[in-house]
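User: I'm preparing a small set of examples for a lab meeting where we compare how different chains pack in three dimensions. I only have the primary sequence for this one, and I'd like the structure in token form so I can line it up with the others. Please keep the answer compact; I'll paste it straight into my notes.
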Amino acid sequence: MPFWKKILVKSTFYISFLILFFALLTLFVNSSYLDTSIFDPKVWESLEQFMKSFAFWSIIIYGGLILDLSLFYLEISEYIGSGVLYNYSFGTYHKPKRETRIFMFLDMKGSTAIAERLGHEKYFNLLREYYADMTNAILETAGQIYQYVGDEIVVSWTKKEGIYQNNCIRCFEKNVRIFEANRAKYLDRFGLVPEFKAGYHIGEVTVGEIGIIKKDIIYTGDVLNTAARIQAECNTYGAKALISGTLLNELQKEDPIAFDPIGKLILRGKTAPIKLFSVIFDSKKIGF
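Assistant: Understood. Below is the structure token output for the 288-residue chain.
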């Protein structure tokens, strides 16, 4: 639905529920006060009097305004991204800050060939389904969607949230499970099941607001370029997910992940070598 219709429909539903709630509450309270059945005419007369009073409608109007403001805030948050409106509202990044964050660059395999095969409109619908199905896994692992770049999605975690129970790696696992469960849907609608690869890295970034006409919160730092380069190496080594040695050292040892060392590589545009590891996913756990 258009934005204004969503607000109108949801607002109507919740206000109707609010009126029903107070009406029922009044019936039960008055029935108890009068020590009679809820179906006694006196109880219903007291309800009618209350619903005609200023007190009743002042509660409904006040509650409706609070609900409308909450719905507006939630809908705007949904459009511009989880947590973004909060950061704008409270000026979290009005001045640039340094943070240590984990980034995952996740890319659809063979997207160019898929786009040519499906055509622009059908490919767009595929991307819509593809990103929608990834949402739960990202939310469940405390990830934040930083950017959609064509068929690529960039997900970010604070160090604490990404390391906790190895959330950043579990996000990929959960997505594999989700797409395996939705295999029939994709084959029926598009004749294929999207596959994806990911590159991970952790490091310090500067985050802050930019823009005048259109404001945005962006991250800058070498960690993003490195994560993107790591993801590009997945094809070279036939890996589903590659992570840097820096991130591997930070992951929780209590819930270890399996990996194969790739070695020290000098990534394109880099002068210093970086250790890369291929993540091994347990097929019994994630349904390969």
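A couple of notes for your slides: Residues 91-286 form a domain with the Alpha-Beta Plaits fold (CATH 3.30.70.1230). Residues 283-288 have pLDDT under 50 and may be disordered.

User: Perfect, thanks.
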